[in-house]
Amino acid sequence: MNYLTLYQSGELLKRVRTAYARLAACDLCPHDCGVNRLRGERGVCGAGAHPAIASANVHHGEEPPISGERGSGTIFLTGCSLKCRFCQNFPISQMGNGETITTKVLADRMLRLQRQGVHNINFVTPTHYLPQILAALYLAIPQGFRLPLVWNSSGYEKVDALALLDGVVDVFLPDMKYVVNETAERFSSAPGYRDHNRPAVREMLRQVGHLELDDEGLAVKGLIIRHLVLPDGLAGTRETLSWIAENLGTETHISLMRQYFPAHLAVDMPSLGRKITDDEYAEAVQALEDFDLENGWVQD
Prior knowledge:
Structural class: alpha/beta
Radius of gyration: 18 Å
Largest sheet: 10 strands, mixed
Helix content: 25-40%
Mean pLDDT: 96
Low-confidence stretches: none
Shape: globular
Number of strands: 10
Distance between the termini: 35 Å
């Protein structure tokens, strides 16, 4: 693992300190809240100085190269920098459900999952806890931690923050949610989503390259992009897939998701208050074919 080299050289500890320094006027995500999380102040994400998690369990529901046969060690982090009106995990992401722990305990959870035989550690919605995750990794390595790390995020990221993960994260699993910024702000309270998302995904690709699998079909390193198809074309699926093909390459692996249903506040919203139709998903699949995006997964 590249993070072992960073640990041995002292670079990982340097990044832990650099990341924590940013919490004094937090600018880890595009909201740039500027709150002092080290003193307990909280911004849009609701996170403080210590990590909070809702669960740390073996999970078999991710993409095949992530879950494999033994499962992914999935750690759901509390809070989120987005406020999606349709979030299926809103009790965790927006209501603060979870347990506040220390970085030592987070390291212990990572090591416990490793002992359970998982293929990787999969941090879900990790952006606002980047310093704490780096610190937990730093504590876990001398205790024998060796698993690949998966960064499973909303894609609402800053390139300079992602730079702290270079050589640390093995697999990036970001969303590309929207094409139109106004839609992102309306439905996810994410100003300028596209303008941050696209450079962030480019940076992820720069760090890890396209997806690489081992002999068992498990992800060793690389990028997998998730795109959730929304009703009435609200996600801008065709334009997103066109951009990926043109800017990242047709070899990019894409997980094209059709499991949208009106959760949370979307139940009462005319534009989001229904599932997508078979025709809407078929159009999205056709777009994959039109742009020669043959790597990845579609859902029945």
